[in-house]
Amino acid sequence: MNWGEQVAARRQRVYEQRPLVHHITNLVVTNLTANVTLAIGASPVMAYAREEVADMARLAQAVVLNMGTLTGEVVEAMLLAGKAANKAGIPVVFDPVGAGATPFRTRTAQRIIKELHIDILRGNASEIASIGGFGGHTKGVDAAGAPARVADMVKQVARDLNTVVAVTGATDYISDGERLLAVDNGHPLLTLVTGTGCSATSIIAAFRAVEDDGVTASTAALAYYGLAAERAAAASQGPASFQVALLDTLYNLAGEELARGVKIRAL
Ligand SMILES: Nc1ncnc2c1ncn2[C@@H]1O[C@H](COP(=O)(O)OP(=O)(O)O)[C@@H](O)[C@H]1O
Ligand SMILES: Cc1ncsc1CCOP(=O)(O)O
Ligand SMILES: [Mg+2]
């Protein structure tokens, strides 16, 4: 099977299996990421209370931990959910939003990675640079300083942390420390809608729920998402119509059309 066919097959699996994705996410993107998860055929649930996060995580087929609007209570909830998921063998996908911007965020990202088994770490280049000790700085939640050779950094951080790392940007890079893949799909309008990185993480989690290999799941999810963005941009006048078109395109994009449009390179 070529990459295009593999992407279409994973997208079809999500649609058929409708995995439940438990999110502990941020106040900004809660609605968008729930709708993105529904549009691709999966099922979102957002639950934050320390009293229930472990139970909810055990019901899910994947867990998203997203530290976008962090509080002390959210950190405790993420650790409880993550530990329950780890114990039950449910994949955990971590989005370290804003790591490198403040000491609290950087410290929390390190703590989550240390105390939990993270299946996939997805962030922008400066968030991952900060976690991996590659310097750089994060401007709020947006990528700012990052090393020149992002691809090398991704592979090195994946190796150091013994996990799958997916770094997004104009080109996305995915590695488990051995394999290294690049995805060239995407559109600059994605940077003008808040929550599009968080949505990438949600789609990766849904794909990981139906695909045990984290590199394949992340690569397929990002190619599908990036191609949907290209198609949506072609039918949009600006960020607002783009956000609406993106949900519609994610819902409709599948099969041959998806398989033909993906741009994936092995490095
Ligand atoms: N300049 C760009 N051109 C095309 N696609 C992009 C560009 N920048 C980011 N993307 C895409 O936008 C999505 C969100 O990525 P990114 O902006 O890096 O995340 P975050 O919002 O967490 O910083 C990803 O799917 C990525 O491929
Ligand atoms: C703007 C903002 N502030 C805290 S979380 C958040 C959303 C970040 O979403 P994304 O990383 O997907 O752009
Ligand atoms: Mg982000």
Automatic annotation (TrEMBL):
Cofactor(s) in the UniProt record: Mg(2+)
EC number assigned by the record: 2.7.1.50
CDD domains: THZ_kinase
Superkingdom as given in the UniProt entry: Bacteria
Keyword ATP-binding among record annotations: yes
Keywords, alphabetical: ATP-binding, Kinase, Magnesium, Metal-binding, Nucleotide-binding, Thiamine biosynthesis, Transferase
Enzyme class: transferase
GO biological process, one term: thiamine biosynthetic process
Pathway: Cofactor biosynthesis; thiamine diphosphate biosynthesis; 4-methyl-5-(2-phosphoethyl)-thiazole from 5-(2-hydroxyethyl)-4-methylthiazole: step 1/1
Binding site for substrate: 46, 195
InterPro entries recorded: Hyethyz_kinase, Ribokinase-like
An MF annotation (GO) of this entry: hydroxyethylthiazole kinase activity
Membrane-spanning residues: none
Amino acids binding ATP: 122, 168
Catalytic activity, reaction form: 5-(2-hydroxyethyl)-4-methylthiazole + ATP = 4-methyl-5-(2-phosphooxyethyl)-thiazole + ADP + H(+)
Similarity annotation: Belongs to the Thz kinase family.
NCBIfam families named among the record's database cross-references: PRK09355.1 (NF006830), thiM (TIGR00694)
Function: Catalyzes the phosphorylation of the hydroxyl group of 4-methyl-5-beta-hydroxyethylthiazole (THZ).
HAMAP family registered for this protein in UniProt: Thz_kinase (MF_00228)
Protein name listed in UniProt: Hydroxyethylthiazole kinase
Organism: Neomoorella glycerini
Gene: thiM
